[in-house]
Amino acid sequence: MKNRSRKLSEKFEFGLFTLPVLICVAVAFYIPFVLTVRYSLTKWNGISKNPEFIGFDNFKQIFTGDANFSAASWFTVKYAILYIILVNVIAIVLAVILDSKLKSKSFLRAAFFIPYILSLVIVGFIWKFIFMQGFESLGNSTGWAFFGKSWLGEPGLAFISVLFVSIWQSVGFYLVIYIAGLQSIPDDMKEAAVMDGAGPFRRFFSITLPLLAPSITISVFMALTNSIKVFDVILSLTGGGPGGTTYSVAYDIYRDTFQNNLYGYGTAKALVLFVAVLIITVVQLTIFKRREVES
Amino acid sequence: MRSNPVLRVIGEIVLILIALLFLYPLFLMIINSFKSFQEVMTDVIALPKSWSFANYEYVWKYIDYPRLFLNNFVVTVLGLAGIILVSSIAAYKLSRTKSRASAIIYFLCIMPMLIPFQSIMLTVMKTASFLHLSDSTWGLGLLYWGFGAPLAVFIYHGFVKGIPREIDESATIDGASGFRLFFSVIFPLLKSVTTTIIIIDVMWIWNDFLLPLLMVNGSPSTKTLTLAAYTFVGQYTSDWQYAMTAMVLAVLPSIIVFIFLQKYIVKGVVAGAVKG
Fold this sequence. Notes:
The complex is a heterodimer of chains A (295) and B (276). Chain A has 295 residues and is an all-alpha fold. Chain A has 2 domains: 2-39, no CATH class; 68-294, MetI-like (MetI-like fold), CATH 1.10.3720.10. Chain A has 12 helices and 2 strands, in the order H-E-E-H-H-H-H-H-H-H-H-H-H-H. Chain A has helices at residues 2-39, 57-64, 67-99, 105-113, 120-142, 155-183, 187-195, 200-211, 213-227, 232-237, 249-259, 263-294, and strands at 42-43, 52-53. Chain A has a two-stranded antiparallel sheet. In chain A, helix 3 (67-99) packs parallel to helix 6 (155-183), helix 3 (67-99) crosses helix 11 (249-259) and helix 6 (155-183) runs antiparallel to helix 9 (213-227). The model of chain A has no long low-confidence stretch (mean pLDDT 89). With 276 residues, chain B is mostly helical. Chain B folds into 2 domains: 5-57, no CATH class; 65-235, Orthogonal Bundle (MetI-like fold), CATH 1.10.3720.10. Chain B contains 14 helices and no strands. Chain B has helices at 5-22, 24-32, 37-42, 54-62, 65-96, 100-110, 117-130, 137-161, 165-173, 178-189, 191-207, 210-215, 225-235, 240-275. Chain B is globular and about 75 Å long. At the A-B interface, helix 1, helix 4, helix 5, helix 6 and helix 11 of A face helix 1, helix 2, helix 5, helix 6 and helix 7 of B.
């Protein structure tokens, strides 16, 4: 009898501790997710009372006759690959330099980290100002043709600008992860390599880089998850332009849902994005798991 | 390399110059916020003729800065308090209970980390308006409880595992149980992870854009800082001096906090990334 009432009160307590989080997560994710699945099978402009059920027509349309979506997907893939490579390479190089004995180390680290604490939308606006107004003045005073180019007005250049501004904003984040990774490499290992007569490049590729693997795993993972969802910075920097060439998948979903009022179609695209993210994450986690087991 | 001190000093100077160049856009933002419209148009890189606060007076009043600041503060504090409370108690219980239900609930809590916000943004709006959370600063703060929970539960869950069960048991013998046991004995032990979670979540909620855009963009009185800066720039597309003033006002709090808490912020961000 006593035992049973204790069990009951344990169960009650378990519920009391876990129910709040379940409600919160359900409101933020599960209910909206179920609704997304439901709306994705409908045609709906948000105004009419009842969404019209049309089965998988939205998905057929997305994969067969949507030039915007394929352009946005291609943009996102290109962007993600270049972003992941560049931001990590730059961050590793900077981290290796900053890890040596410098007097201004903490100033330098802080300087590179500052953009990361700013909102991406605002970063986009600041750079829009620099590209549109600042470059003109810089061009006048230096005479360099580089500043005269239309960095937001030509498709190829606008892509580079979006990529560049994203890297500028976030490189400090990857930098501090790599610095932490480098600090966990024991000094005697580096010293032993110096004793053995290994030059700086040899040391970097055969000692530092392999031991940095856990940091690289984390950083690549973060860079990938962030870059496939890229949105804010494009919204304020180029607004998707010029000629709609810098729309990412997330921005394309936003455009269809909130600017074109295609609620059903937009949510169907949103679901496609979810499945893509899910597959990429699962593949990535399995690869990394296997690598960790091997090493 | 290590033998030549002159080269090292030169290298360090070059690095400092690179870092200053890296921050040059922020410097341009600040100096142009003090200029008049004509000055911005004629030369962006020149220093302002006089350091006048006229732009600041205008923008401060126009966007009602104190109000925005208060809104941001309420959203961030409310969101954060809820995330910490709801996630820590759940993660503690889930980590201590070995049962199928516990494993399933844990999975349900962390699984949403895989759902991109853009995949559910429309239906989040619908759900929020059904629950009367739309168009209110408090409603926005409450919504963050759910959005912040997955990562927080994940981080807390891993950390609680490392706290010996004997601590719970001895506290039970002393007569503490339930919430009292948690808040007087366990929660203080979670201080270091709680700091990590506070740092990553403050940076996220304070700067967040899309959720506020969808939730509280209807009225000027509920806007957040980033959101107001965004709308403001949309209205003043060619008045760059005002736009830059709004940008400075929007980013200033973050930069000031960063300068003072730099060490903790960097540490917290690294810890969050490594554990997450």
